[in-house]
Amino acid sequence: MAKTEVNDLLNAGVHFGHLTRKWNPNMAPYIYMERNGIHIINLYKTAAKIEETNEALKKIAASGRKILFVATKKQAKDIVAEKAKAVNMPYITERWPGGMLTNFVTIRKAVKKMASIDRMKKDGTFETLSKKERLQVNRLRAKLEKNLGSITEMTRLPGAIFIVDTTREHIAVREAQKLNIPIFAMVDTNSDPRDVDFVIPSNDDASKSIDKIMGLVTGAVADGLKERKSEKEGSASDDAAKMETAAKETEVKDNEMTNNIPKESTSETPNTEDKKEESPSKKASVKKEK
């Protein structure tokens, strides 16, 4: 995991906050100074918070749970979609569907509906519909794809949620709080950090700043996924080694059994030969007596 450099954050414009008149007083610990009516964020604190966030996200990714990325603002949606796809994580970049977390069962039904439409197209039942019905089904499919297409692989509630701009995505924050899902977020000077479990004080309006933070965060997630993969491979190789040693042990036991059987038979053969040798002498003695 790459270490966060303050100069890189500075070049990306992460330190620019909102106008001083729009600030949230709870962000005071993360503000360095005020310049030309704009608050400047303390990047040393931002770097420390990024490290803390990355450690937590790496552990969640290594445990196999999904992290849901949320960003519906224009300058963030494309960046978040690209970065989340790169690490195979679900994301929401269109309108937040109400009850996405608190009413997850209903959302899953909508996703299954999308899958059933795809099956209809494959097995040919779609062609049996009238022209008007086909048009309606295609429109429904396009709508579902736009809103829920990015979460089709999310079969259960996410292990964490990462939000860009908590003020805009306040419904997502409330739902995650209700279900005790850890919240990671880019928090600007106009937002309340008390709603977030892992705060990254940063500029959440500039696309360059969002790209920089998302790159660092998804890098940590990718490291966690690699760790999980290596652990799986290691456990599989251990199992294979155990099976191999067990097979060798059984083979050795079978060989010992087979080696013991001939020895017993050879030890018995001389007795039979003695009996055969004794029989002519016995016959001779019987003849003499006669």
Spatial gap, N to C terminus? 107 Å
> With helices defined by DSSP (H or I, 4 residues minimum), what is the helix count?
7
Helix share, percent = 55-70%
Structural class: alpha/beta
* Overall CATH architecture of the largest domain: 3-Layer(aba) Sandwich
Largest sheet: 5 strands, parallel
Q: What is the strand tally?
A: 8
- Classify the fold: give the CATH topology of the largest domain: Rossmann fold
Would you list the SSEs in sequence order as H and E? HEEEHEHEHHEHEEH
Mean pLDDT: 84
Low-confidence stretches: 263-270, 272-277
Kindly provide the radius of gyration, computed on alpha-carbon positions and rounded to a whole number of angstroms: 36 Å
Counting structural domains, the number is: 2
CATH level-1 class of the largest domain: Alpha Beta
Shape: flat
β-strand amount? 5-15%
For CATH, the homologous superfamily of the largest domain is named as: Glucose-6-phosphate isomerase like protein, domain 1
Query: Largest sheet, order of strands side by side?
Result: 5-4-6-7-8
Task: Describe what you observe in this structure.
- The structure is a single chain.
- By secondary structure, the protein is α/β, with parallel strands linked by helices.
- It folds into two domains: 6-98 and 158-234, Rossmann fold; 102-156, Orthogonal Bundle (Helix Hairpins).
- It has seven helices and eight strands; from the N terminus they run αβββαβαβααβαββα.
- The protein has helices at residues 6-11, 43-62, 74-86, 104-123, 131-148, 170-178, 207-289; strands at 16-19, 31-35, 38-41, 67-70, 91-92, 160-164, 183-187, 198-201.
- β6 (160-164), α6 (170-178) and β7 form a beta-alpha-beta unit.
- α3 runs parallel beside α7.
- Mean pLDDT is 84; it is low at 263-270 and 272-277.
